[in-house]
Design goal:
This protein is of the alpha/beta class. The chain is built from 18 helices and 15 strands.
C-alpha cells in the first residue's frame, strides 16, 4: 500500500520531462491514486501533454487523475510536490542572443548576460508556494540549479531539492571501459555542473587504474574513430581526460563542458579537438541547433500521437521507468521507500570548504525523515581553488546582480568573457542585448530601470 499525492508540474509543456514523469508515476504502484496538475502558459503544448498523459495512464490501467491549467496558483493549490521544469526565454531567444553577439560583436557562441528571467520565475514560484502550499517540496528540474536553488532556500522557507542527470556520466565512463555500471560504486560531489569523481570502485577495487589504462592504451583510437550520435556525448572526450590530468579527478557530466575553462571553447576547430566530431560538443553553432531541432521533432511527434486516436502510447512511450530521480524521491519522501540519490540541497556541512547556505550537489539518503545529505568531506585543494570556489563566486555575483539590479555587475560578467576585446565593446554588447524586445518584458524592464537609476556604467576616463 502507498499514499496518493498531489503534484503540480510547472512548465509542463517541456519536451524533455513531463511525459517521462507521467510514465514513472504510472509505474510506481505506491503512488496510485495520485493527481497531477499540468501547468504551462503555452496552451498548445499544455493540451498535448495533458492528452498524452491521460491516455497513457488509461491505456496502462494506472489509477491516476489529471487536470491542466495556465494558472500557476491553481497548480500549486493543495500540492504535496511541485516540479519546476520551465525555461522562460526559450531556445529561440537564446539563439537570437548568440547570433546578435556573434554577427555584430564577434563573439563565438556567446552573449548571455545572466539568468535574470529564470531566477525571477524560480523565486516567484517559491514565494507562491510559501503562500499556497508551504509544506510542499519543490523539485527544481530546470537551470540554473545552483543559482536558483541557493536563491530560493535563502529567500524563502520552502523545502527545495534541485535535480540534474549529469551524474549519470559515471555510467558512460564504466561502459567505455567495458565494465558493468551496475557493479560500480561511485561518488561525485561538488556544485551543479561542477562535480568530480572522488570514488570509482568496481567489484570492491579502486577502478581509477582502469581509466588510466584506457587512456594509455585505447583513448587515442577512441578519439580518432568515435563519432557522437548525440550532442552531449563528451564524457570520454579528449577534453574530459585533459581536465582529469589538469585537476586530478575525472569530471562527470556537464562538468566536462564548463565554460569557466575558456581555452576549450575559443572556436569550432578548438571545440572539435577537445570534444570530438561532428559538433564539437553541445555548445557550438553546429551542436546547439541540432539539439534544439531534436526537441522540436519530439514535440512534433507528441502532437502527432495526441491527434491519433489509435496510437498505442504504451508501445510508443514504453513501460519501463526512466532513470530520472523526481518520482523515486517523491515516493521515498511519501512512502518511505528509501533510496540514495544525487541531489542539490543547502550544504550544511556536507561538503567542506563552502558556506552552509550554498547549495551543493552531493549524495543523500531520502526517506520519510526527509533528504539527508551524506557528509562527503573535502575535495582536493586544487579543485577547490581552480574549480569550485570560482564557481561559487560567480554564483554570488549573479545573485547580487539579480537582487540589486546593478547593471555594472552584468557588465563585469561581459568584461570577464575572454572574447571581450575592450571595455567599449563590452558596454556596446550589453546595451544592445538589454534593448532587445525578446530579452526583457516591459513590466520587468520598467522595474529594472527604476532600480538602475543609480547604477550606471562607469565610463572610460
Amino acid at each position: 500500500m502507498g499514499t496518493a499525492i498531489k503534484i503540480g508540474i510547472i512548465g509542463a509543456g517541456s519536451a524533455q520531462f513531463s511525459l517521462g514523469l507521467v510514465k514513472d508515476i504510472c509505474l510506481t504502484e505506491s503512488l496510485r491514486g495520485s493527481h497531477i496538475t499540468f501547468m504551462d502558459i503555452d496552451k498548445g503544448r499544455l493540451e498535448v501533454i495533458y492528452r498524452l498523459g491521460t491516455r497513457y495512464a488509461s491505456q496502462l490501467g494506472a489509477d491516476l487523475t489529471f487536470d491542466a491549467t495556465t494558472d500557476r496558483a491553481a497548480a500549486l493549490q493543495d500540492a504535496d510536490f511541485v516540479v519546476n521544469t520551465a525555461y522562460v526565454l526559450g531556445h529561440e531567444v537564446e539563439a537570437k542572443m548568440r547570433d546578435l553577439a556573434a554577427e555584430k560583436y564577434g563573439y563565438y557562441h556567446s552573449g548571455s548576460f545572466g539568468s535574470y528571467h529564470q531566477l525571477r520565475l524560480m523565486l516567484d514560484v517559491a514565494r507562491d508556494m510559501e503562500r499556497i502550499c508551504p509544506d510542499a517540496w519543490l523539485i527544481q528540474s530546470s537551470n540554473p540549479v545552483l543559482d536558483g536553488c541557493t536563491l530560493m532556500t535563502r529567500e524563502t522557507g520552502i523545502k527545495v531539492c534541485g535535480l540534474c542527470h549529469g551524474h549519470y556520466g559515471y555510467m558512460e565512463i564504466a561502459q567505455t571501459l567495458g565494465i558493468d555500471p551496475a557493479k560500480v560504486t561511485w561518488q561525485a560531489p561538488g556544485l551543479n555542473h561542477n562535480i568530480w569523481l572522488t570514488h570509482f570502485i568496481y567489484e570492491g577495487e579502486n577502478a581509477y587504474p582502469l581509466i588510466d589504462e584506457w587512456i594509455a592504451t585505447r583513448a587515442e583510437e577512441y578519439w580518432r574513430t568515435h563519432v557522437a550520435e548525440r550532442t552531449h556525448d563528451i564524457q570520454m572526450s579528449r577534453g574530459a581526460v585533459h581536465q582529469y590530468h589538469m585537476f586530478g579527478l575525472f569530471p562527470v557530466g556537464d562538468t566536462v563542458r564548463h565554460r569557466q575553462w575558456w581555452w576549450y571553447h575559443t572556436d569550432i576547430t578548438t571545440k572539435k579537438r577537445w570534444f570530438g566530431e561532428p559538433w564539437g560538443g553541445p555548445d557550438t553553432h553546429l551542436g546547439r541547433p541540432f539539439f534544439v531541432a531534436g526537441l522540436e521533432e519530439r514535440l512534433k511527434e507528441y502532437r502527432h500521437w495526441a491527434e491519433d486516436p489509435k496510437a498505442d502510447l504504451t508501445k510508443l512511450v514504453g513501460t519501463e521507468k526512466t532513470r530520472e530521480q523526481q518520482v523515486p524521491i517523491m515516493d521515498a519522501l511519501t512512502n518511505n521507500n528509501e533510496g540514495c540519490f544525487q541531489v542539490n540541497v543547502p550544504n550544511r556541512g556536507a561538503l567542506a570548504g563552502l558556506p552552509d547556505d550554498v547549495v551543493v550537489e552531493v549524495p543523500a539518503i531520502v526517506n520519510q525523515k526527509g533528504i539527508q545529505p551524506l557528509c562527503v568531506g573535502s575535495l582536493p585543494p586544487k579543485i577547490m581553488l581552480e574549480c569550485i570556489l570560482p564557481d561559487w563566486l560567480d554564483m554570488e555575483r549573479e545573485l547580487l546582480a539579480f537582487k540589486t539590479g546593478d547593471r555594472s555587475m552584468l557588465l563585469f560578467e561581459t568584461l570577464s568573457n575572454h572574447q571581450t576585446r575592450n571595455y567599449d565593446a563590452a558596454v556596446a554588447l550589453l546595451d544592445d542585448l538589454l534593448q532587445q524586445p525578446f530579452v526583457v518584458e516591459v513590466e520587468d524592464w520598467e522595474k529594472m530601470e527604476r532600480i538602475q537609476d543609480t547604477y550606471k556604467y562607469p565610463r572610460p576616463l
